[in-house]
Amino acid sequence: MNFIDTHSHLFSEEFTDDLPQVIERAKAAGISRIYMPNIDCSTIKPLLDTVSRFPGYCFPMLGLHPTSVNENFRDELSVMRKMLEEPNSFVAIGEVGMDLYWDKTFLQEQLEAFDTQIQWAAEYQLPLVIHSRDSFDEVLQVMKQNQDRVLKGIFHSFTGTLDEAEQLLQFDGFCLGINGVVTFKKSTLPEVLKRIPLERIVLETDSPYLTPAPNRGKRNESANLKDTLLKLAEIYQCTPDEVAEITTRNALKIFIS
User: What is the CATH code for 3-255?
Assistant: First the structure.
C-alpha cells in the first residue's frame, strides 16, 4: 500500500537531528512521495537542501506563506519570481493564501501577495497549494476573481463546513487536503467528508504540526499519515488500500498530469 504526503515541512528545524530516520519511517509506512511547501525566502535553502538529499522522494514548492507577508513582501516575491524564471525543480506554488487568525494588519498585502502568486501558477502552469485560516471569504473572493485562469491545486488543511467544501470544490481542478485534524475527538470533519467524494480528497500531514490521534501532542511526521488514511477508510467505509489508491491518483493528477 503506497500513498502520498502532499504537505510536509520536513526541512524545518524540528527535523534537524533525525531527518534520515524520519524519511525511513515514512517509506516503511508506505509513503511514496512527499511534497514540501515553502514558507518565505529564509526557508528556500533548507527546503532545496532537503530535496537534494532525497531526490525523487521529496519535491519542493515555492511560495510566500501568508503569515510571512509584511511590509517587505514585494521584496520576497521578487526573489521568488526570479527563481521561477530560471531553471528550477519547483513542482507547485505554495503554500500561499490568507491567514487572519492572529491579526489583520497586513490584510491588503496578503490579498495582493495571494493574487500575484495565483498569476504565477497560471503563467507557469503549476498547481497551487492554498492556506486559509479564518479567511474563507477572502480566499473565495480572490479565487473567484481568478476563475477564468486555468488552475488546479489543493485547499490545504481543510477543516470547514459542508457548505464551504462545496463552494471550494466548484473549482474543478482542486482537491481538499485532509490531515490529522480528521482524527481529533471533537472534529466535525468526519460528518462533512461523508458528503464529499473521495475523488476530491488528498492526504497530508502538515508535519511537524497537527499530529493525528493516537499521537497528539508529539511532533508530527510523514509516517503518521497512515493514521489519517485509516480514519478515512472508516469514514468512507472502504479498505485502506482503496483510500491509498484513490488519494494517490488524485495527488498525481494535481502534481504531475
Answer: 3.20.20.140
